[in-house]
Design brief:
This protein has 351 residues and is α/β, with parallel strands linked by helices. It has a domain at 2-182 and 230-257 and 302-321: 3-Layer(aba) Sandwich (Rossmann fold), CATH 3.40.50. Helices cover 41% and strands 15% of the residues. It is built from 13 helices and 13 strands. Strand 5 (108-112), helix 6 and strand 6 form a beta-alpha-beta unit. The radius of gyration is 20 Å and the shape is globular. The structure holds uridine-5'-diphosphate-glucuronic acid. Uridine-5'-diphosphate-glucuronic acid binds next to helix 7 and strand 8.
């Protein structure tokens, strides 16, 4: 079996590819523009350094691989309102040819969408509030068009509809995965160290802790997220890949409803964990910032996102097990080990 992993060099890919090697006999076509996060992987992995829109690439991949796992996206809310055209292309335009090619060749497309498609909060299809976000029973509630934050969710939703339609009417074997705030080592980047801009919240808070600067809480930090460890998440993806019959034609949430916290609580847990991992280091407090200050105009937010994972559990036997408190020490240790030396070197050079 040959599996293509598109976006293999990113955060999720860099965890998924080693897990596929360990748990399956598959040969892997690993496609990405950079492979900085993916450790050496041996001769069962062929690295293809290219953008997905390179002429001939989609044809090559769908000709060679029975399964295509598509992870590529610009998954960063700070970019959705600043560069929505790039976001829409990466989430939609560039991927339509892939969907068509997979349908024509009957390749199993395992596409990673996003919990962001549910929008601001969980509403049922009549518009009534509900606690959890369910794949087939929750409406998709995006903000107005001038809130360009939703450009990503809207593009992702449209691609889901294109995939679904190819499944229903053109023979495409597909599974759509909606990840809910996966966190772990190698997520995103630190500004001015190995990237620019505002990373997602884990990296933003780790960057602040490592620099001894207050952790920026957007609009008071009352928004809530359910964080899932990347190990639990990858376990769910492997279960899906092992169960084509059960999972084809399905949309599946992968998240951990037990880890539902406000962003303010996340900041507090990270501060406490940092103090334990780096004894004696100064631990900065938090600072409230407006969304406009951090992200500019057009940002909007999800108030809370709790996944209903009953379908994934029923179809695959998967269940996430790691609490937020249990996963944070290893994550903080990884950020400290990777970035503290780089930041110290940078500070020394600036003196
Ligand atoms: C993002 C993506 O848009 C989703 O598609 C993706 O599924 C999700 O991350 C994910 O990681 O799975 P979001 O949860 O809004 O969505 O991303 P973050 O940037 O991590 O923000 C989480 C919350 O923290 C937001 O309310 C944000 O305003 C807040 N935040 C972020 C801060 O308070 N301070 C910061 O420095 C950064």
């Amino acid at each position: 079996m040959r599996i293509a992993v598109l976006g293999a060099g990113g955060f999720l890919g860099s965890h998924l590819v080693p897990a596929l090697l360990a748990r399956t006999e598959a040969e892997i076509e690993a496609v990405d523009v950079t492979f900085g996060k993916l450790a050496p992987t041996g001769d069962r992995v062929r690295r293809v350094q290219a953008r997905l829109d390179r002429p001939g690439l989609v044809d090559e991949i769908t000709g060679a691989c029975e399964v295509v796992v598509s992870l590529t996206a610009i998954c960063n809310p700070a970019v959705y309102n600043r560069d929505p055209l790039a976001v829409i292309d990466a989430s939609y335009t560039d991927l339509v040819p892939l969907v068509k090619a997979c349908a024509e060749r009957r390749r199993w497309l395992v596409h990673f969408s996003t919990c962001e498609v549910y929008g601001r909060l969980a509403l049922d299809t009549e518009g009534r509030p509900s606690e959890r976000m369910h794949e087939d029973a929750t409406g998709l509630f995006l903000g107005p068009v001038d809130k360009e934050r939703w450009s990503y969710a809207c593009a992702k939703q449209l691609l889901e509809r294109v995939i679904y339609a190819h499944g229903a009417h053109a023979g495409l074997p597909f599974t759509i995965v909606r990840p809910f705030n996966v966190i772990g080592p190698r997520m995103d980047w630190l500004p001015d160290v190995d990237g620019e801009g505002v990373p997602r919240v884990l990296a933003a808070f780790m960057g602040a802790l490592l620099r001894g600067q207050p952790l920026p809480l957007v609009d008071g930090g009352e928004q809530r997220r359910c964080f899932i460890s990347v190990e639990d998440f990858v376990g769910g993806v492997l279960r899906i890949l092992e169960r084509p019959q059960a999972c084809q034609g399905q949309i599946l949430n992968l998240g951990n409803p037990a880890n539902d916290v406000s962003i303010r609580v996340l900041a507090e847990l990270l501060r406490q964990t940092y103090a334990l991992v780096v004894p004696g280091a100064p631990v900065p407090g938090v600072v409230e910032v407006s969304a406009e200050e951090l992200y500019g105009p057009g940002y909007d937010d999800s108030r809370e996102r709790i996944p209903d994972i009953e379908k994934a559990e029923r179809l695959t036997g998967w269940r996430p097990t790691t609490s937020l408190a249990a996963m944070l020490p290893a994550i903080v240790e990884d950020y400290v080990a990777r970035y503290a030396p780089l930041l110290q070197r940078g500070q020394a050079a600036a003196r």
